[in-house]
Amino acid sequence: MSVPVLLSSSSVFPEPTAAAFELAASLGYDGVEVMVWTDAVSQDAGALRGLSRHYGVPVLSIHAPCLLVTQRVWSSDPKERLRRAVILADTLSAPTVVVHPPFTWQRDYARGFADTVGKLAHRHTGVRIAVENMYPVRMGRRQVVPYHPGWDPTEAGYDSYTLDLSHCAASRSDALEMADTMGPGLAHIHLGDGTGEGRDEHLVPGRGAQPCARLLEGLERRGFTGSVAMEVATRKAGSRAAREADLAEALAFARTHLAAGVAPTRS
């Protein structure tokens, strides 16, 4: 089994999308996950195809614009944003689109979300639309769930999922149990660590308390056929060299533990 390890363009922020391709190529990642955001390059199939060809690194996942800061990217309509993300993935032959559950205030979108995902998947059969686990937001002593019907997509039930380990830490949930619940629907992994302090930290794997190693080592047993995208926060890195060092360490961690889980072949 060969599981591709991708570099999410969010991992190079505040550097632009183009930097993700440059770093993925120089460090030896297998591909890039493009976070569609306000950077025009992240929204443009032609520009992304050009970067992919120039650096020799394929786009293997598209993250739909679901963040609060991307609510106006492409359209103010979240359904249209998802539709365009799927079209972008199909155009670039990227097999995965990552999408968050709807926000609670997106009532119309939330009401028809499962149907929208199903229809898009039916039209674009080469793309898995993988709904990502999120987490409740803690405000002092209060806990608010800003997603409908909740932060855990397995409770609603979808054909495909993205498992984010940093989000598991923020929700104080068991990542391995969630992977079990996702079952064959586990299509994609966002690899990042967390301490379990109720915050979304996206640490380099191995620097927190999440079972990153055990999850990677068990993917062959699970029959996993998707990809692993490195989604770590490097915005506080003091230099490009420090960012490169963090991303190189993250890649080495992923490759080491993926290899450890592969059964030896008999001669």
UniProtKB/TrEMBL annotation:
Tree of life domain: Bacteria
Record domain Xylose isomerase-like TIM barrel: where: 21-256
Identification of the protein by name: Xylose isomerase-like TIM barrel domain-containing protein
